[in-house]
C-alpha cells in the first residue's frame, strides 16, 4: 500500500491513466497536472494547475514516458495548458522526493542533478523493456501489414540490434515465416541469433545485406541506416525504425530515394496504451512501495 504518500502526476498520455488508477487503488494521494480535459474522475486524485501544487509535500513526481523536452516542457495530451518542470520546482520538494520518467535527456538530467534528487528511468529497466517489447512487436507487425502489399511470410527481413526489443521482434517475425537476418555488433548477440536459428551478420557489413531486403527494422538508437546503406536498398523496401527519437535512419535521404521509412518510437502507448500503462503502473508501484518502506525503516 502507498497510504500517506503524496504523488504528483504531470501530463502524459493514456498510459498515465492506468498509473493513476493503480496509485489510487493503493491509497496514494494524487495531484494531477495537465488532465483538465479528462472527464473521468479518480477517487483520491485532484486536478490542479502547476502553480497550485505544494511541491514541499511531494514524495514522488511521475513524468510521462518522454520526460520533458529540452526546454523543460511536458507532454499533456489531456490539456492545452503549458506545463514546464524547472530546477526551482524540484528544489522545493523534500530531499527524499523521487522523480520517475520513462527516459531522460540533458535538460531533465541536469535539473535533477542540480536539485540533488533521484531520477529513475523506467525504460532503463530490463523488466519494463521486456514487457514493453510485446506491444512493440504487435505494433511493428501492424505497421508492416499496413505499409506493404506482400505478406510477412516469405519476405526477406533484416532486424538491426538484438537487445531486449530486437530479440522479441526477430523471434516473432521468424515465427510468422519471415526470412530473418539479424545485424548486430556484439558477438554474444550474433551467437544468440544463431541459437535462435537465424542468419546474422556484423553491422559493419549492413550494406551487403540490404540489397534483397523487403523489410528492415531498426532498434538501435544510433545512425545505422545511413545514405550509403539506403543507396543499396531496393525501392520497394519498408524501413521501420523503433529506436527512440531521432531514430537511426537518415529519413531525409530515404525520402529523396523514394524509400518508405517510418519512425515509430513509443509503439506500446499507441497500439496498446492500457497494457503499456499497466506494465508501467505495476513496476512504478513496486518501486515506490520499496522506497517508502526503506524511508520508514531509516527514520
Features:
Rossmann fold, six-stranded parallel sheet, 299 residues, Dipicolinic acid synthetase subunit A, alpha/beta, 10 helices, 2 domains, AlaDH/PNT_NAD(H)-bd
From the coordinates shown, what is the CATH architecture of the largest domain? 3-Layer(aba) Sandwich
Strand and helix order: EHEEEEEHEHEHEHEHEEHEHEHH
Give the % helix.
Answer: 25-40%
Average pLDDT, rounded to a whole number, is: 94
CATH superfamily of the largest domain: NAD(P)-binding Rossmann-like Domain
Separation of the first and last Cα atoms: 19 Å
From the 3D structure, determine the CATH topology of the largest domain.
Rossmann fold
Biggest sheet character: 6 strands, parallel
Shape: elongated
Mind telling me the C-alpha Rg? Answer: 21 Å
The number of helical segments is 10
CATH class of the largest domain: Alpha Beta
Number of domains: 2
Given as residue ranges, the uncertain stretches (5+ residues, pLDDT < 50) are: none
> DSSP strand (E) fraction?
15-25%
Number of strands: 14
Largest sheet: spatial strand order: 3-2-1-4-7-8
Structure description:
It is built from ten helices and 14 strands. It has 299 residues and is an alpha/beta fold. It has two domains: 6-124 and 272-297, 3-Layer(aba) Sandwich (Rossmann fold), CATH 3.40.50; 129-265, Rossmann fold, CATH 3.40.50. The strands form three sheets. The chain has a six-stranded parallel beta sheet with strand order 3-2-1-4-7-8, with helices on both faces.
In a nutshell, what does this entry contain?
By secondary structure, this protein is α/β, with parallel strands linked by helices.
